[in-house]
Recover the amino acids of this structure.
């Protein structure tokens, strides 16, 4: 053995000294990360009032989740409470602010997953449940199923004691106007597409106005992760389209051994790439870090022609929020209650 | 370098000689694998006539797929044609033979995925489409979406020119009697469960009579894989329950770089484990063989308390058909047209 010990000790000492001097040494431990949708969110198109409203809503959502976690509640409780704040706000495409379908309805999807047990629940195409995220949780906890759709899911939610509302609860002028614009734009596109095999389909050229989702991932004091996603889907959608949000493995996934993930963006690409579970698989099978795995997942979506973003949190409290759109409404809170809210790149 | 070359040559020669003498040397290249559901399929409970009927139907399905592949059609064409045979047979829980929901309806789900492009399509909760697998394919090819549910999916299928049927088309006496038995058994279970948090839920104690799915994976002359799955869901299901069959990554997945997969069994466990994509991920990230990856996936389902089986085929023509139930209706065909049909362990 010719290895000289002396230089090794010197190097270690120097490295420790550098670490001690560096601000990164106090590695932040995050306990929650949220998103409120990704898309062409440009400062140029934003009014100060609108930006403030988003920042306040995201901050309120994070505070709510943090209080739950601080009080010793489970990560699932925190995720549900946080998403309630965003579902009840007209700003986000979920719950109250859900976009309209082609037929002038609000059809919502949601999913939750528990990182400790890999139990999961999801609903799709529901129109009368005030907080779809709670319906997803009820499916997980009060049934032996994982996914329920349409009227059946609504019947279940009602029997589970959830708050039901008339479809008119979800009316907002902003979203209604958005539908009228989308119908006009899609009709123009349908004419252009005439004769193509895709002509039956509502166009997605103006997809940035069409998508949007909310999501949260939390890490509780017991060290358990939970993830949830809730969405109003796609403006002017037809044919009962379902995106990635309620698909376990695509838009939502959680596993204590790897990470909790919630995605937002062009759902079809997230389904085809099984994005949320793919991140977990890369971490487990390739031993990739949360940062590298999430970046790789977004890169795959981009290469295929899709866009969007995602949030992820691992058991050590590392957080990642990659996206390949102009912006993503997002925020984090640390174990000390430090809140950070971001919108643009 | 002290390595002696002589023994190495000797060893190589001996190994080649042994290989030449062994029947395994002529490694079969499979071009299609199918399943018709997994469960408590015991020879003791089977009449010779019933067994023959299943063997004939599976053989016919494989012949149909093989003829398509031999004629140079795509793996997607072969998968669709093969699944049509099983959907049109009253023997399998898909299409014509779909089981009844609690409300006496037949709600079907299906999905397809193209291994070359990772394009995918799925429908869930459809009641008037004669061949749901074709609706899944139409979603993939004629829309920019991946998944459609309920009435919306039916409207799309109709506009796409698919064969629509009245719901009564799916009536079979066998399945209707099965529903009556399930209602009786589930009521008994509901009484036992009274007060438990799961009492709202239809029991799954007699799940072997409740599940069943058909699926096919094919490899065409161009070397492309395709997978498809079609199901009538779960007897006596309530609340618009959706299983793994139409969930890309759970019950259905295909990727030329890894494998095509179609699953059958207790769907909730397949969703929570993202089974179909997990096999692909283990092959890609851990460099596991098709045999090892599929065995590991079934083991995970079993450890969690679930059961079922799956079929898988890779680009080299290797096939795997693992299951942890008593039996699985299944079969393969090689590039030379050799058909094998199996039922029991």
């Amino acid at each position: 053995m010719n290895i000289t010990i002396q230089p090794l000790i010197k190097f270690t000492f120097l490295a420790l000294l550098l670490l001690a001097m560096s601000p990164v040494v106090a590695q932040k431990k995050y306990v929650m990360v949220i998103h409120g949708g990704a898309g062409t969110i440009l400062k140029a198109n934003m009014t100060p009032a609108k930006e403030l409203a988003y920042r306040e809503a995201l901050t309120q959502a994070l505070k709510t989740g943090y209080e739950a976690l601080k009080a010793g509640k489970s990560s699932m409780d925190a995720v549900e409470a946080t998403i309630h704040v965003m579902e009840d706000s007209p700003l986000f495409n979920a719950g109250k602010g859900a976009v309209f379908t082609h037929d002038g309805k609000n059809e919502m999807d949601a999913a939750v997953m528990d990182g400790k047990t890999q139990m999961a629940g999801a609903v799709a195409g529901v129109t009368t449940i005030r907080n779809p995220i709670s319906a997803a949780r009820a499916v997980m906890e009060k049934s032996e199923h994982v996914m329920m759709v349409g009227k059946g899911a609504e019947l279940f939610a009602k029997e589970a004691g959830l708050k039901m509302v008339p479809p008119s609860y979800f009316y907002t002028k902003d979203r209604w106007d958005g539908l009228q614009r989308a119908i006009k734009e899609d009709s123009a596109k349908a004419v252009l597409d005439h004769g193509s095999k895709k002509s039956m389909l509502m166009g997605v050229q103006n997809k940035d106005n069409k998508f949007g989702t909310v999501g949260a991932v939390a890490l509780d004091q017991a060290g358990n992760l939970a993830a949830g996603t809730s969405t109003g889907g796609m403006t002017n959608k037809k044919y009962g389209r379902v995106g990635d949000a309620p698909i376990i493995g695509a838009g939502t996934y959680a596993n204590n051994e790897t990470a909790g993930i919630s995605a937002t963006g062009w759902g079809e690409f997230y389904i085809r790439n099984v994005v949320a579970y793919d991140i977990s698989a890369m971490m487990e099978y390739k031993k990739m870090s949360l940062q590298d795995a999430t970046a790789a997942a977004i890169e795959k979506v981009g290469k295929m022609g899709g866009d969007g973003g995602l949030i992820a949190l691992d058991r050590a409290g590392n957080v990642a929020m990659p996206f390949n759109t102009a912006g993503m409404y997002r925020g984090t809170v640390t174990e000390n209650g430090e809140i950070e809210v971001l919108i643009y790149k």
